[in-house]
Each structure stands twice: as C-alpha cells, then as structure tokens.
Design the sequence.
C-alpha cells in the first residue's frame, strides 16, 4: 500500500527526525511503500530561524539535512500539491503533531493534522502515536466538533500517551490504542547500524551525556552534582542551535549519528528531552530526566510509567536521590519488546 506520512516539519530536532525515519522504516518492513509528506512552511516559521539568513540556516542544518536527504524519502513531496491519487493510505504521526499550540498557526491550521484536506478521497487514514503533548484539551471549543468529525473518518487510531487515550475518548468520542513512539519500534542494534554506516562520528569527550534543550541554573547544578556523585565527565550532546545570541559556529547541529553514538558510548544520561529519554531506555543507560512543563510533562510521565521508572523524573534538586544509581530495572528490555510487538500488531492490522 503506497503510504504518506504526515508529521511535524523536520529540521534540527533529533527526535523529530528519528521518529519519522523509524516510522517510515517500520512501514516498509511491513511490506508497504512509505514516504514523508512535507509541510509547506513560510520562511522563518520555526523559532530558531528568527533573524538568520538562508545561508546561516543551512549552515546550522547541514548535518541534520544530510541525514534527512540520505535516509528519509519524499522530502520534496509537498503537502500543497497532493492529489487524491497519490496515496492509498496516510499515517499521521508521531511527535506532538496533535498539540494545538504547535500546529494551529501552520498552513491549513489544526484541522490539517486530522486530514481535513483529504475529505472525499478514497484513502485509508491511520494515526500512529501522535501526541497532544499535554494531558488537557488545548483546542478551542468551537473547533472541537469539527475535529471529532474528522477523526471519525480514520480507519485506525492510536496515540503515544495514556492521557491521549482519555482525550480521544472523552473529548473526541473515539477509542484509541496506546502505542509506543515510532523510535521504539526499532532496536538499539538498528540505530547502531546507522552509527557504523557513518564516517562522521567520533568518541564523545566525556561519559556523562548532557542533552538539555532548555538550560537553567538548576539543571547545570544537577549536572555538577551527578558528575561528582558518580565520578563522570559531562559532555554536551547538542549545539546551541536554538540560542540566538550564540556564534554561528556553536549553533551547527552535530550529525544525527553522532547524537546516537553519544547514547551508545555514555555511562549515564541527563536530559530534559522526551526522545533522549527514549534513547536512554533503548540503549539501557542509567539516566535522569529533568521535567520541562513548557514542552509538556504528560508525555514524559506516560513514558516512564510504562516502564516503571517514574523515579527517574527529577523536577527539582530536592527530588534527586543520592542513594540511587538511576539504572534501569531488569524488567525494562522485556517490557520494551512486549510493547513494541503490541504496537507493531496495531500497524499490521491498520494496513489489512
């Protein structure tokens, strides 16, 4: 079945890129064609692009764009040019594509991510692990009935968080299945192959991986505490890509494969990122995730709860347990495998 994937725009965000790669790869492994449907955005639409020339943006993007062009199909397949005959199925997901705050100002508005533009098309509509980002309904009441009507046109509905199941049922009147993020449909061995196929990585200069999207003094202090407690050397796994005042040379995002290698080689991870938490789990690393309410806590809480690791969420310094080594329970690998298989079964059924 020829399938289009509609997700958030791909740019400098490692998790966003890898979830698209993983979903495309999984759909192809199930025997279908899959390619990305590109969102049409005006120049400078993303916050990190503000004040930058096109050449400066391309400098920051040089490594992540190379990965996208090498591994993700359909990067030139524009949403605005789609016709009813282009696809037999469209999969919406994953990431926070159903978060109203993130998508309401994009071309076509919030209804686009519920496939309003395909009304009347002979199409199988599937959602795989889209996230609302938060555990409350953000969309205005006057658009909710239209969203509910559109979602009832879907053949199969799944969401990434347990709270999303509740929102679909109670607000939109649709039953949804709880599935894992697309990145968890693949294994650490799959990602190690990407590292091995790249000539553009090097060993990190430390063993405490720090992937912090929103830096604060409290997070810096926690990194120092961890380094001293476990005798580790911190290293930064992301550039200052989203910091407008930083020199351009410090804003260039490292290769995706380098980011993956950082998980493989690290002894421990500290992060405030959902997808960095996912990859810490996949690579079996001890980790701490420091919550970020502005980017959405529901998704972190749901993820950690699935695997019995809510104690790895440290919202402030007072939550840090100096007696814990923050390693993962022995049950986690089998739980990941079990939930991966359940999620793969959802996709298999959605395509049959």
Sequence:
């Amino acid at each position: 079945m020829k399938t289009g994937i509609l997700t958030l725009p791909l740019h400098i965000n490692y998790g966003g890129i890898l979830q698209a790669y993983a979903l495309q790869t999984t759909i192809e492994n199930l025997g279908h064609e899959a390619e990305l449907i590109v969102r049409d955005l005006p120049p400078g639409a993303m916050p990190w692009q503000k004040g930058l020339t096109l050449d400066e943006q391309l400098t920051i993007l040089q490594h992540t764009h190379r990965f996208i062009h090498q591994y993700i199909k359909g990067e030139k397949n524009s949403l605005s040019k789609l016709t009813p005959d282009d696809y037999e199925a469209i999969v919406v997901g994953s990431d926070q594509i159903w978060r109203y705050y993130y998508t309401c100002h994009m071309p076509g508005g919030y209804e686009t991510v519920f496939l309003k533009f395909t009304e009347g098309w002979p199409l199988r509509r599937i959602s795989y692990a889209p996230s609302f980002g938060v555990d409350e309904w953000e969309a205005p009441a006057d658009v909710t009935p239209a969203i509910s009507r559109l979602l009832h046109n879907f053949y199969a509905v799944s969401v990434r968080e347990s709270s999303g199941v509740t929102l679909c049922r109670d607000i939109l009147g649709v039953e949804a299945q709880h599935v894992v993020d697309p990145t968890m449909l693949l294994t650490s061995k799959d990602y190690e192959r990407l590292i091995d196929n790249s000539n553009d990585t090097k060993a990190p200069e430390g063993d405490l991986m720090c992937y912090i999207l929103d830096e604060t003094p409290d997070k810096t202090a926690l990194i120092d505490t961890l380094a001293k407690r476990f005798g580790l050397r911190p290293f930064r796994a992301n550039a200052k890509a989203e910091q407008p005042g930083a020199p351009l040379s410090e804003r260039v995002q490292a290769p995706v494969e380098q980011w993956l290698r950082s998980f493989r080689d690290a002894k421990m991870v500290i992060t405030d990122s959902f997808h960095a938490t996912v990859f810490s789990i996949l690579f079996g690393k001890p980790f701490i995730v420091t919550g970020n309410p502005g980017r959405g806590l529901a998704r972190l809480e749901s993820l950690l709860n699935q695997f019995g690791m809510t104690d790895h969420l440290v919202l402030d310094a007072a939550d840090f347990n100096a007696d814990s080594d923050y390693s993962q329970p022995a049950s986690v690998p089998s739980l990941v495998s079990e939930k991966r298989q359940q999620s793969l079964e959802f996709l298999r059924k959605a395509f049959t």
